[in-house]
Design brief:
Chain lengths: 263, 472
């Protein structure tokens, strides 16, 4: 599927796929996603029966188990509305991975339909809603880790576009920026040694860049890097892009408020 | 834990730190050079990769037709064509050709297929002296080692190790100056070319419609393998075809840039058959051996796009796992991402022995992003993981997913687990088995459990929003 060429979303009624990591650990990321999308005039529907996108089993090679979970997901997110996911990885599972494992399945059509209206968070904001500059303020040196599952999608560029537009925010490039953080889902526990080596390299490059904040669009990468960073002496503050956008909005409002009052 | 360790992870853990750093730095430099030259020279290199990918996929899909055409074109140029179903047949074909001429000494240029068939060992056992003439391959040969990279065979060695090898082999006193090492190898090899009875090469491309063979090297050793020897044998995988001469500019421009960050390799040879009557030098006799060795089976599988590969090694250089583990970790001729797909496939019935290779990837997709023929390597790795699971091949450390799938398809159970998750005990052990916990915790903290918090937050927010909309 060519994500670069798809039409804008059918409506601003958004179904939120919160992802299992946010459901279990990172509730504030899901909350920030809601706040940001509502700020942009979207109405958010959170289907309560949602669980996971099926990616853990897909990557582990258990496609039979994965297909069961994907079928559940398709049923939960039925309809015409765009589905927005604050994770490049889970989004890629819907519009790429699921298509691969359903290649020879009779219900491939239903998967394709969901794939066509599923958007990664930053791609939805920039290319779906046409928002290319972000209001608010975030005075910090920020390192952006492009999550690997957004390779070949418009998400990385969309995230950077938003970050660059934020008042006070300084993007700090770092060495081997295109390299994986070492998470890779079950890879992180089946290849713990290589995964750790990759993570440490990433953290060293980020530390050398002088970044105060590490931001990414994927809580998988950030859980791995954050979990490793917690054991180091100096660690950047770790934020999902949705959190940073929300915090920038709040800071912008807080800054504008007194000057408005003064007038 | 030891029994649950993945072989490649174990290899990386035990790898000498100096070797790991050498492999990492050399690979990373290769990736940077590739990027610089491709993006410096072309406005849209990705478009070129996509076209080259389609071209090679077309060849793969029509391989039977192009092989027939290639055979025909080669014969018209006076080349004898041989078909080898497996490595042994290919080696025997080489030996038969040499015996027919009474040839005892073979000089060979770099060829991955001859590594695949273990030609040098086979010939040695049959009384033929087979000498590698690519500098890296030469060092690998005298060390009794194996290449660890398909383009840079000794990426895992440093100059001090090589200097010790040369000293041991009587090529001079210890000296680790690369220029001195190279000069000594040159003097030694030059003599050997003139003593040889036959030369063997691989082929980077065989052109179906012209019967031309293309060889690229940086050392010029393949030319020396051909110029003074009366017999030229080219051993080629059946997938190495391109349809027309006109396809070569695209492929050659991508190959050198992807492999070594060069616009073109120092030598690019177009071989159009044996020596013509009016030519002073060159082989009187030329043979092409097309090797199958499992490729037909790959062609019949849903992983056939791996046969597009033109062996540039860009995916090895960019791969974070290769950079941590080095090539020998893959226990096969083809290492790195391409090897993690190709090696288990070419293993045929021995697939289970190499079924761990496709697991050695975080699926980051960097390999696909640099591939000059746009092979969807992560997709192929995933297909092979699925195949291994279906064939019931055990995978150390991979958490079982059956129970997780049951939970993820039962929203009630899922919500219950989210709510009760604070005491992680209620999460079924098979979802996050103890081994996986340990593996995670060895180097990372787990964030505090927050199951159910978002759902509660959203309900409160909805209630507040409703309250502000309809003030009572």
């Amino acid at each position: 599927m060519h994500l670069n060429e798809r039409p804008p979303p059918a409506s601003r009624n958004v179904k939120l796929m919160a992802t299992c990591l946010c459901d279990a650990y990172f509730d504030d990321v899901a909350a920030a996603t809601v706040e940001v999308l509502e700020h942009l005039g979207c109405t958010i529907d959170f289907p309560e029966r949602q669980t996971c996108c099926g990616q853990p089993a897909f990557n582990a090679g258990d496609w039979e188990s994965s297909r069961k979970v994907v079928r559940h997901m398709v049923e939960v997110f039925e309809g015409e509305d765009p589905v927005v996911v604050p994770s490049g990885s889970c989004a890629a599972m819907v519009f790429h991975g699921a298509l691969l494992e359903f290649e020879k399945e009779p219900d491939l059509g239903a998967i394709q339909a969901l794939a066509h209206r599923t958007w990664e968070f930053s791609d939805f904001i920039v290319n779906g809603l046409g928002v290319t500059a972000w209001p608010g303020r975030f005075p910090a040196k920020v390192a952006f880790h492009r999550s690997c599952h957004t390779r070949g999608t418009p998400s990385g560029e969309a995230s950077l576009k938003l970050l660059r537009s934020i008042d006070g925010l300084e993007l700090t490039p770092f060495g081997e920026g295109e390299q994986c953080c070492g998470f890779g889902g079950t890879f992180s526990v089946t290849f713990p040694n290589i995964s750790k080596g990759m993570g440490e390299l990433k953290l060293e490059h980020i530390a050398a860049s002088g970044a105060e904040v590490l931001v990414s669009g994927d809580m998988g990468c950030l859980m791995h890097l954050g979990g490793m960073a917690a054991r180091r002496e100096q660690t950047p503050r770790i934020l999902h892009l949705a959190q940073l956008l929300r915090d920038a909005l709040r800071a912008g409002v807080a800054r504008e408020a007194p000057s408005t009052a003064a007038r | 834990m030891a029994a649950k360790e993945q072989p490649i992870d174990k290899y990386s853990r035990e790898l000498d730190a100096e070797v790991r750093h050498a492999v990492h730095d050399n690979s990373a430099a290769g990736t940077d050079k590739r990027r610089e030259i491709l993006w410096g020279d072309y406005p849209a290199p990705d478009a070129l990769r996509h076209v080259a990918g389609q071209l090679k996929q077309h060849v793969v899909e029509n391989l039977d037709r192009y092989l027939e055409q290639a055979e025909d074109s080669l014969r018209k140029r006076g080349v004898q064509v041989h078909w080898a179903a497996d490595g042994e047949a290919a080696n025997r074909a080489v030996l038969d050709i040499l015996r027919a001429r009474g040839a005892k000494r073979l000089v060979k240029a770099k060829s991955m297929v001859s590594e695949e068939t273990e030609l040098a060992d086979y010939l040695a056992k049959n009384g033929v002296d087979c000498l590698e003439t690519d500098l890296g391959e030469f060092i690998v040969q005298v060390d009794g080692d194996h290449p660890s990279h398909i383009v840079k065979p000794i990426i895992h060695k440093n100059r001090r190790q090589i200097a010790r090898t040369f000293e041991r082999e009587g090529l001079g006193d210890y000296n680790d100056d690369p220029e001195v090492i190279t000069r000594r190898a040159r003097v030694y090899l030059r003599k050997k070319y003139f003593e040889a009875d036959a030369g063997l090469t691989g082929a980077n491309f065989v052109v179906a419609d012209s019967g031309r063979i293309v060889l690229v090297t940086n050392e010029g050793n393949s030319r020396f393998c051909l110029a003074p020897t009366p017999v030229h044998i080219a051993m080629v995988g059946i997938e190495k075809l391109v349809p027309r001469d006109a396809d070569l500019p695209l492929m050659l421009n991508l190959l050198a840039r992807s492999a070594t960050g060069q616009r073109l390799t120092v030598y690019t040879e177009f071989i159009s058959g044996r020596r013509a009557a009016e030519q002073p030098d060159g082989p009187e006799e030329m043979h092409v051996i097309f090797l199958d060795n499992g490729r037909s089976e790959v062609l019949a599988s849903d992983c056939r796009s791996i046969l597009r590969c033109i062996r540039c090694g860009a995916c090895l250089n960019v791969c974070p796992v290769y950079r941590q583990a080095s090539g020998h970790a893959y226990r096969s001729v083809y290492p790195g991402p391409v090897g993690a797909v190709l090696s288990p496939l070419l293993a045929g019935k021995r697939f289970p022995e190499l079924a761990d290779l496709p697991k050695a990837s975080s699926l980051c997709g960097a390999c696909n992003e640099v591939c000059p023929v746009d092979i969807p390597i992560p997709d192929l790795l995933l297909r092979l993981r699925d195949r291994a699971k279906r064939e019931g091949i055990a995978s150390p450390g991979t958490p079982p997913m059956g129970l997780w799938a049951s939970m993820a398809t039962s929203p009630g159970l899922w919500r219950a687990a989210l709510g009760a998750g604070k005491a992680m005990d209620l999460i079924p052990k098979s979802w996050i088995p103890v081994g996986a916990f340990q593996a995670w915790h060895a180097s990372r903290d787990l964030p505090p459990w927050g199951g159910g918090r978002f759902r509660r937050w959203l309900k409160r927010r909805r209630a507040e929003q409703a309250a502000t909309k309809e003030p009572s």
